[in-house]
Amino acid sequence: MYSNYTTGTRVTMGDLFPALFFSLLLATAGLYVGQSVPPALFLPLMIVEIIMIVAAMFIRRRRVVGYGFLFTFSFISGITLFPAIRDYVSHIGAPIVLQAFAVTVIAYGGAALYAGITKADFSFLGGFLFIGLIALLGMGIVSFFFPFSRTADWVYTLLGVFIFLGYTLYDFSRVVRYGVSREEVPMVVLSLYLNFVNLFLFILRLFGLNLKRD
């Protein structure tokens, strides 16, 4: 999601957290607003969200993605998360959803802390993670036409958890080792935000599968 870490004034991991926190705060506000959004609008908003992600990858090649883009995306993604969160609350209960969120915060924060303390280089994960992400997207598309078996559902869910936990380690380790230009902070935060949201959704799915097993 970001091109390099070598141009402009460089900032460190600690400088990214305020923007990441505000992005998550706006997503929470969007989640609240989602309660009042007509169901017919969710699909168009999801399409807008996808277009924004694709646009971000092209925009960064020519000019910098700004904070306005980042925060607008965060708010819209919060709205589009509402149907999924509502369904999980309905099926597994609000306390379990909160537990899944707490586990996500701990796992995500632990990965960030580990990258910061050890300064380990996880750049070797890039290729494996990309291949895993393509496989994950492929499995997701197939599931629309052919419902998963229980085993395939577990494989898909665990793969998602490991991929986005891996991306969290990968992204934070690059920031720690090389820094990031101040101009590219919004783009990097967008990547970190997507890691958190996707990790949360797959951990939620994992909790749901575990309850079904019981």
UniProtKB/TrEMBL annotation:
Subcellular location: Membrane
Membrane topology: Multi-pass membrane protein
Matches recorded under CDD domains: BI-1-like_bacterial
Alphabetized UniProt keyword annotations: Membrane, Transmembrane, Transmembrane helix
Transmembrane segments: 12-34, 40-59, 64-84, 96-117, 124-148, 154-173, 185-207
InterPro entries (alphabetical): Bax_inhibitor_1-related
UniProt family annotation: Belongs to the BI1 family.
Protein name: Bax inhibitor-1 family protein
